[in-house]
Protein backbone atom coordinates (compact mmCIF):
# COMPACT_ATOMS: atom_id res chain seq x y z
CA UNK A 1 0.00 0.00 0.00
CA UNK A 2 1.25 3.47 -0.94
CA UNK A 3 2.28 5.74 1.91
CA UNK A 4 0.74 9.20 1.32
CA UNK A 5 2.12 10.71 4.53
CA UNK A 6 4.61 13.55 4.35
CA UNK A 7 8.21 13.10 5.43
CA UNK A 8 9.50 14.85 8.54
CA UNK A 9 11.63 17.13 6.33
CA UNK A 10 8.55 18.16 4.33
CA UNK A 11 6.62 19.00 7.49
CA UNK A 12 9.47 21.11 8.91
CA UNK A 13 9.99 23.00 5.64
CA UNK A 14 6.24 23.55 5.17
CA UNK A 15 5.96 25.05 8.65
CA UNK A 16 9.01 27.23 7.89
CA UNK A 17 7.42 28.28 4.58
CA UNK A 18 4.16 29.20 6.33
CA UNK A 19 6.02 31.35 8.85
CA UNK A 20 8.02 32.95 6.00
CA UNK A 21 4.85 33.82 4.10
CA UNK A 22 3.40 35.49 7.20
CA UNK A 23 6.61 37.52 7.55
CA UNK A 24 6.39 38.53 3.87
CA UNK A 25 3.10 40.34 4.58
CA UNK A 26 4.96 42.83 6.79
CA UNK A 27 8.22 43.44 4.90
CA UNK A 28 8.95 44.92 1.43
CA UNK A 29 8.35 42.48 -1.44
CA UNK A 30 10.11 44.39 -4.21
CA UNK A 31 12.57 47.28 -4.50
CA UNK A 32 13.15 49.71 -7.35
CA UNK A 33 16.17 52.02 -7.13
CA UNK A 34 17.02 54.96 -9.35
CA UNK A 35 20.48 56.49 -9.61
CA UNK A 36 21.49 59.64 -11.47
CA UNK A 37 24.24 62.28 -11.21
CA UNK A 38 21.81 64.67 -9.48
CA UNK A 39 20.83 61.91 -7.00
CA UNK A 40 24.12 60.17 -6.13
CA UNK A 41 22.56 58.68 -2.98
CA UNK A 42 19.83 57.17 -5.16
CA UNK A 43 16.05 57.07 -4.85
CA UNK A 44 14.30 53.96 -3.59
CA UNK A 45 10.73 52.77 -3.90
CA UNK A 46 9.58 49.69 -1.97
CA UNK A 47 6.47 47.68 -2.77
CA UNK A 48 4.92 45.91 0.22
CA UNK A 49 1.91 43.60 0.23
CA UNK A 50 -0.38 46.54 1.02
CA UNK A 51 1.51 49.81 0.45
CA UNK A 52 4.37 51.70 -1.21
CA UNK A 53 7.16 53.28 0.82
CA UNK A 54 10.35 55.12 0.02
CA UNK A 55 10.98 58.07 -2.28
CA UNK A 56 8.02 57.54 -4.60
CA UNK A 57 6.77 61.14 -4.14
CA UNK A 58 10.13 62.47 -5.38
CA UNK A 59 10.02 59.93 -8.24
CA UNK A 60 6.50 61.19 -9.10
CA UNK A 61 7.87 64.74 -9.32
CA UNK A 62 10.65 63.70 -11.68
CA UNK A 63 8.43 61.46 -13.80
CA UNK A 64 6.00 64.33 -14.36
CA UNK A 65 8.55 65.96 -16.67
CA UNK A 66 8.69 62.95 -18.99
CA UNK A 67 4.93 62.35 -18.96
CA UNK A 68 4.71 59.29 -16.70
CA UNK A 69 1.64 58.76 -14.51
CA UNK A 70 1.97 59.45 -10.82
CA UNK A 71 2.22 56.48 -8.48
CA UNK A 72 -0.53 56.35 -5.87
CA UNK A 73 -1.23 53.49 -3.49
CA UNK A 74 -4.96 53.57 -4.18
CA UNK A 75 -4.28 52.78 -7.87
CA UNK A 76 -3.06 49.29 -6.95
CA UNK A 77 -5.93 46.82 -6.59
CA UNK A 78 -3.26 44.25 -5.68
CA UNK A 79 -2.77 45.93 -2.27
CA UNK A 80 -6.33 45.00 -1.35
CA UNK A 81 -5.85 41.26 -1.94
CA UNK A 82 -2.12 40.50 -1.61
CA UNK A 83 -1.98 40.39 2.22
CA UNK A 84 -4.94 37.98 2.21
CA UNK A 85 -3.40 35.86 -0.56
CA UNK A 86 -0.14 35.52 1.38
CA UNK A 87 -2.12 34.72 4.55
CA UNK A 88 -4.10 32.11 2.62
CA UNK A 89 -0.92 30.42 1.38
CA UNK A 90 0.58 30.48 4.88
CA UNK A 91 -2.60 28.83 6.21
CA UNK A 92 -2.44 26.30 3.36
CA UNK A 93 1.14 25.41 4.37
CA UNK A 94 0.01 24.70 7.94
CA UNK A 95 -3.10 22.83 6.74
CA UNK A 96 -0.94 20.62 4.51
CA UNK A 97 1.19 19.67 7.53
CA UNK A 98 -1.94 19.03 9.62
CA UNK A 99 -3.54 16.83 6.93
CA UNK A 100 -0.20 15.06 6.40
CA UNK A 101 -0.98 14.13 2.80
CA UNK A 102 1.29 14.34 -0.25
CA UNK A 103 -1.64 15.26 -2.52
CA UNK A 104 -2.15 18.41 -0.48
CA UNK A 105 1.55 19.25 -0.92
CA UNK A 106 1.25 18.85 -4.71
CA UNK A 107 -1.92 20.98 -4.75
CA UNK A 108 -0.23 23.68 -2.62
CA UNK A 109 2.89 23.66 -4.81
CA UNK A 110 0.92 23.94 -8.07
CA UNK A 111 -1.36 26.69 -6.74
CA UNK A 112 1.54 28.70 -5.30
CA UNK A 113 3.56 28.48 -8.53
CA UNK A 114 0.55 29.65 -10.57
CA UNK A 115 0.12 32.53 -8.11
CA UNK A 116 3.84 33.41 -8.39
CA UNK A 117 3.78 33.48 -12.19
CA UNK A 118 0.55 35.53 -12.20
CA UNK A 119 2.11 37.94 -9.67
CA UNK A 120 5.15 38.53 -11.90
CA UNK A 121 3.03 38.89 -15.08
CA UNK A 122 0.81 41.44 -13.30
CA UNK A 123 3.89 43.38 -12.13
CA UNK A 124 5.36 43.36 -15.65
CA UNK A 125 2.08 44.63 -17.13
CA UNK A 126 1.96 47.42 -14.53
CA UNK A 127 5.53 48.42 -15.39
CA UNK A 128 4.75 48.28 -19.11
CA UNK A 129 1.71 50.55 -18.74
CA UNK A 130 3.59 52.89 -16.44
CA UNK A 131 6.56 53.21 -18.82
CA UNK A 132 4.75 53.32 -22.17
CA UNK A 133 1.53 55.31 -21.64
CA UNK A 134 3.12 58.75 -21.53
CA UNK A 135 1.55 62.18 -21.66
CA UNK A 136 2.34 63.51 -25.17
CA UNK A 137 2.32 67.08 -23.81
CA UNK A 138 5.04 66.44 -21.22
CA UNK A 139 7.86 68.96 -20.78
CA UNK A 140 10.43 66.44 -22.07
CA UNK A 141 9.44 64.23 -25.00
CA UNK A 142 12.02 61.92 -26.55
CA UNK A 143 10.49 60.38 -29.71
CA UNK A 144 10.35 56.59 -29.50
CA UNK A 145 11.53 56.52 -25.88
CA UNK A 146 9.73 54.48 -23.25
CA UNK A 147 10.58 54.41 -19.56
CA UNK A 148 9.54 50.92 -18.47
CA UNK A 149 11.61 49.89 -15.44
CA UNK A 150 13.21 46.45 -15.66
CA UNK A 151 11.22 43.57 -14.20
CA UNK A 152 14.45 42.24 -12.74
CA UNK A 153 17.95 43.68 -13.02
CA UNK A 154 19.24 46.97 -14.47
CA UNK A 155 18.12 49.28 -17.27
CA UNK A 156 19.43 52.69 -18.35
CA UNK A 157 16.60 55.24 -18.75
CA UNK A 158 18.08 58.49 -20.08
CA UNK A 159 20.42 59.70 -17.32
CA UNK A 160 18.85 57.40 -14.69
CA UNK A 161 20.01 53.90 -13.95
CA UNK A 162 17.02 51.80 -12.80
CA UNK A 163 17.43 48.68 -10.67
CA UNK A 164 14.57 46.32 -9.85
CA UNK A 165 14.77 43.19 -7.72
CA UNK A 166 13.06 41.27 -4.93
CA UNK A 167 13.30 42.61 -1.41
CA UNK A 168 13.02 40.49 1.76
CA UNK A 169 9.43 39.38 1.15
CA UNK A 170 10.06 38.67 -2.53
CA UNK A 171 13.05 36.48 -1.71
CA UNK A 172 10.92 34.64 0.84
CA UNK A 173 8.28 34.01 -1.84
CA UNK A 174 10.93 32.75 -4.31
CA UNK A 175 12.36 30.55 -1.55
CA UNK A 176 8.95 29.06 -0.76
CA UNK A 177 8.42 28.30 -4.45
CA UNK A 178 11.77 26.50 -4.64
CA UNK A 179 11.08 24.60 -1.41
CA UNK A 180 7.69 23.44 -2.72
CA UNK A 181 9.16 22.22 -6.02
CA UNK A 182 11.98 20.35 -4.26
CA UNK A 183 9.66 18.81 -1.65
CA UNK A 184 7.20 17.71 -4.34
CA UNK A 185 10.03 16.09 -6.29
CA UNK A 186 11.37 14.30 -3.18
CA UNK A 187 7.92 13.11 -2.13
CA UNK A 188 7.13 11.81 -5.65
CA UNK A 189 10.51 10.07 -5.73
CA UNK A 190 9.90 8.42 -2.33
CA UNK A 191 6.40 7.31 -3.45
CA UNK A 192 7.86 5.54 -6.48
CA UNK A 193 10.27 3.48 -4.40
Q: Topology of this structure?
A:
Blueprint: H1 8-24, E1 30-36, E2 39-47, E3 52-54, H2 56-65, H3 78-99, H4 102-132, E4 153-157, E5 160-166, H5 168-191
Antiparallel strand pairs: 1-2, 1-5, 2-3, 4-5
Helix pairs in contact: 1-3, 1-5, 3-4, 4-5
List keywords for this structure.
five-stranded antiparallel sheet
What is the total domain count? 1
Class by SSE composition: alpha+beta
> What topology, given as strand order, has the largest sheet?
3-2-1-5-4
| Assembly state (oligomeric) | single chain
| Weakly predicted, low-confidence segments | none
Shape: elongated
Residues in helix, % = 40-55%
- List SSEs in N-to-C order: HEEEHHHEEH
Number of helices in the DSSP assignment: 5
Rg from Cα: 20 Å
How far the N terminus sits from the C terminus, by CA atoms, comes to 12 Å
Give a count of the beta strands, DSSP E runs of length 2 or more: 5
Largest sheet: 5 strands, antiparallel
The portion of residues forming beta strands comes to 15-25%
Average pLDDT: 91
Organism: Cloacibacterium normanense
Transmembrane segments: 12-33, 81-99, 106-126, 168-186
Protein name: Copper chaperone NosL
Keywords: Membrane, Transmembrane, Transmembrane helix
